[in-house]
Give the backbone structure.
Amino acid sequence: MSSLLRERGIETFLVSPDQSARAHLSSLNLALHLRQRLGADVIATMTTWDKTIMALQADLLGAHALGLRAVVCAAGNPPLRGDYPNVDGIWEVDSVGLAGLLCGLNQGRDSNGLSLATKTSFHIGARFNPGAPNAAAEIARTKAKLRAGAQFLITRPVYELDTFRQMARELAADDVPVLLALAPLRGFDEAEYLAHEVPGVTIPDATLRALERAGDGAAAVGLDLAADLAAQAAGLAQGVVLRYDGDLAAMDRLRRAL
């Protein structure tokens, strides 16, 4: 499937781990596979809950030797929320600490400040959530990631642009590239769950009403809404990240809206 996306002009792939703490191919390994198989530019999401600092450094140095150059820092979800509730998380560093670790590797030193034989050249990314309930706390943590070494930002999936505009203004002085993540809603039930059960997700009432009225055609309406957001995002962000769920026609539609 990745080769079909490549044929459609998709040149950069962002690889993220499953949202639940379940057994799955690591995003780092999948990113390296895509790079070696397709020669594509890839961005790997690294989580910190499951690895010690030494293991993180070893994985990153190995990935760099194999050509990986872009990493998004994430803390990850606790195992308690997945299939292995009795597995302890490690959490030696969080996403801020991982950004700092990557920054150190780029300067030729490890987490203890000891010199390495080589310097890496990672582009360091971090996530932020425009819809966070406490906007001030989210901005403060995002700025901490930038101080630690993050060089670009990717939003959590957004379903309206007002909160993004507000947070973008707060971060404007940092002059950092921001990528807007879009994930088309597939139905009213999904949208209602996200709006009322998932903290930090803002979905306008008008969006919920449109999806409810659409009934069996809600997926098409969700795609239309995402395409409208993609068109409105022009000039607000330096790029857009599109979630791919297996629908090539939907991906083509969103790309045309950019």
The CA atoms of residues 30 and 129 lie 25 Å apart. The chain has a mean pLDDT of 88. The chain has one domain: 2-257. The chain is about 45% helix and 15% strand.
